[in-house]
Design a protein that fits this description.
This protein has helices at 3-16, 109-121, 136-147, 185-197, 219-231, 243-251, 268-277, 286-290, 305-308, 313-319, 322-329, 337-353, 373-384, 389-404; strands at residues 29-37, 46-54, 57-63, 74-77, 82-85, 87-92, 97-98, 101-102, 124-129, 154-157, 162-164, 180-182, 203-207, 236-240, 256-257, 280-281, 357-358, 421-424, 438-443, 446-447. By secondary structure, the chain is of the alpha/beta class. The chain folds into two domains: 17-84 and 428-447, Roll (Urease, subunit C, domain 1), CATH 2.30.40; 87-412, TIM Barrel (Alpha-Beta Barrel). The chain is globular, with a radius of gyration of 23 Å.
C-alpha cells in the first residue's frame, strides 16, 4: 500500500473511531510559549503556559508541558512575559476631539482611525463610544464586524445620547446638537426607534444639572427612554451625578451607571436596589474627575514617556504652559474635582465590596482626557481606591465583556475566543501599574503595529 493510500486509510479509521483529525489550522498559526497567563477570570497567574492562535482565535491554551505544536506554526518564546486579555472600556467618546478642541467637525474617518489606533497601541482592544457620535461610526463598526478581524480597536456605539431641552451637556464646547434634546414621550419613542433601526449597540442618557447650573432631563422622560429602549432590546446607561437620581433610574430599570455617584456616599438602600435590579456600575470614570483639576498645576505626568505616547507634541507643549494651567485652575469645576474624585473612589469601593456588578470605563476622549493613557491611569486609581489588582483586571476584561453581551468572543483568554491580548514585561498582579509594561498587543490574533 503506497503512502497516500495508507494516509487515507488511517484518516477513515480514526473518523470511524470518533477520534478524527484535529480541527484544521489556517496558515497564520502562531504558538505563544513559556509565559505566565492571566486569563481574566480572576484566578492566580499561571506560569509555564502556552497558547495556539489560528485564524485570529485561540485554538488551545494550557500548560506548556501539554502543548502540541502544529506543523508550520510560527513560534514565539515569551519566557519571563505576562499575557492578559485586551482592555475593554465601557465609557469613552470617539471622534469629536482634535488636539484640545471638541467639535463635531472633527468627526472624520481619519480622526476616528487615529484614535482607535492609539487605543490599540495602549492595549484597549474594545471601546464603547457613549452617545456623541455621527452615522460614520456605524459604517466603521459594521466594516469591522463584516471583516471579523479588525486591525484596530473594536467599536461599540450608543450613537446619539439623550438629554432634555438645552440640557447638560449641550452647553459644553462642541456638544450643541450632539445629543437628542427630548421634550415629550413621543419624541423619545421616535428617537429610540431611530437608534434601534440604525442598530445602535446601547442607549445613553445624561441625567445631570451640573450643580444646578444647567437643565436636567425630566425623570418621566428618562423613564420613557429606559422603557422604550428595553422594548427594542437595548440596554441603557446613564450619566449620573446625584445619588437620588441614580436611585430613581435604577428603580425604573436602568441597566448601568456610566459614572460613580459623586455627591454623597451610597447607602444600603441603593446597594440593595442595584443588586435586586441587576444594575451595573459600568464605569467609575475616576480619571474624568481628575481631568477637572489635574492640569491646573505643573504635573510630573507630562514627563512620563508612557503619557507622551498618548499626546501629540503640540498638545504636550500647551499643557506645560502657565496660560493653560491658569485656564484650568479658573474653570468652574476645578475646586470641586478633588472632592468628586474622592467620593467616586469611595463609592466604587463600597459598591464593589457589596457585590454590585462592576465594569470598567474612563470617559476618555473629550479634551484633556487622553485615550490610551487614561485607561491605565484609571486602573491605577481603582487600585488607589482599595481594589486588588487581580479584581481590576477582571473588571476591565471579563466583566466588561459580560456587560456588552460579548463573553462568547471577548474578555478572557480561553479556547474559541478572539486572541485580543496584551504581552507585558512585568506582573500586573503585583502592581496594576505594570499594565504599562506593554511589549506587544494583539487584536484578533493580529499584532498591532
Amino acid at each position: 500500500m503506497n503512502t497516500r493510500l495508507r494516509c487515507a486509510f488511517l484518516a477513515v479509521f480514526l473518523a470511524a473511531c470518533g477520534a478524527g483529525p484535529e480541527p484544521p489550522l489556517t496558515t497564520d498559526t502562531t504558538v505563544l510559549e513559556n509565559f505566565t497567563l492571566l486569563d481574566g477570570n480572576g484566578g492566580p497567574p499561571v506560569p509555564g503556559s502556552a497558547m495556539v492562535v489560528s485564524g485570529g482565535r485561540i485554538q488551545w491554551v494550557g500548560p506548556q508541558a501539554q502543548l502540541n505544536i502544529p506543523a508550520r506554526a510560527e513560534r514565539m518564546d515569551l519566557s519571563g512575559k505576562y499575557v492578559m486579555p485586551g482592555i475593554i472600556n465601557l465609557h469613552g467618546h470617539l471622534g469629536n476631539t482634535l488636539g484640545l478642541t471638541q467639535d463635531p467637525k472633527n468627526f472624520t474617518r481619519e480622526n476616528l482611525e487615529s484614535q482607535l489606533t492609539t487605543l490599540a497601541r495602549f492595549g484597549v482592544t474594545t471601546y464603547v463610544t457613549m452617545g456623541s457620535e455621527q452615522p460614520l461610526i456605524l459604517e466603521l463598526r459594521d466594516e469591522q464586524r463584516r471583516e471579523g478581524r479588525p486591525r484596530m480597536t473594536r467599536v461599540v456605539t450608543a450613537l446619539r445620547g439623550f438629554t432634555g431641552k438645552e440640557g447638560y451637556p449641550t452647553s459644553a464646547p462642541g456638544m450643541k446638537g450632539v445629543p437628542y434634546e427630548v421634550t415629550s414621550v413621543q419624541e423619545v419613542q421616535t428617537a429610540v426607534k431611530e437608534l434601534a433601526d440604525k442598530k445602535a449597540d446601547l442607549v445613553k442618557i445624561w441625567v445631570d444639572d451640573h450643580l444646578g447650573k444647567e437643565n436636567k432631563i425630566a425623570l418621566n422622560l428618562a423613564k420613557a427612554i429606559i422603557d422604550e429602549a428595553h422594548r427594542h432590546g437595548l440596554k441603557v446607561a446613564a450619566h449620573i451625578f446625584y445619588l437620588s437620581d441614580a436611585k430613581e433610574l435604577v428603580r425604573a430599570g436602568l441597566d448601568a451607571l456610566a459614572h460613580s455617584v459623586r455627591d454623597k456616599p451610597v447607602d444600603d438602600e441603593f446597594i440593595a436596589l442595584m443588586k435586586e435590579k441587576g444594575a451595573w456600575l459600568a464605569a467609575a470614570t475616576l480619571t474624568r474627575e481628575a481631568s477637572t483639576f489635574i492640569f491646573g498645576t505643573p504635573q510630573a505626568m507630562l514627563d512620563d514617556p508612557f503619557f507622551q505616547k498618548a499626546v501629540p507634541a503640540d498638545v504636550l507643549a500647551t499643557l506645560r504652559t502657565p496660560e493653560l494651567q491658569k485656564r484650568v485652575a479658573s474653570g468652574p469645576d476645578f475646586k470641586h474635582g478633588p472632592e468628586w474624585l474622592a467620593m467616586g473612589k469611595k463609592n466604587l469601593k463600597i459598591l464593589f465590596d457589596a457585590g454590585v456588578k462592576t465594569g470598567f470605563g474612563t470617559d476618555s476622549g473629550p479634551p484633556m482626557r487622553f485615550q490610551g493613557y487614561w485607561e491605565h491611569w484609571e486602573m491605577e486609581m481603582m487600585q488607589d481606591a482599595g481594589l486588588k489588582a487581580n479584581d481590576i483586571l477582571t473588571i476591565a476584561t471579563r466583566n466588561s465583556a459580560e456587560f456588552l453581551g460579548m463573553s462568547k468572543d471577548l474578555g478572557t483568554l480561553e479556547t474559541g475566543k478572539w486572541a485580543d491580548l496584551l504581552i507585558l514585561g512585568r506582573n500586573p498582579i503585583e502592581d496594576i501599574r505594570n499594565t504599562r509594561s506593554i511589549e506587544m498587543v494583539w487584536i484578533a490574533g493580529r499584532k498591532v503595529e
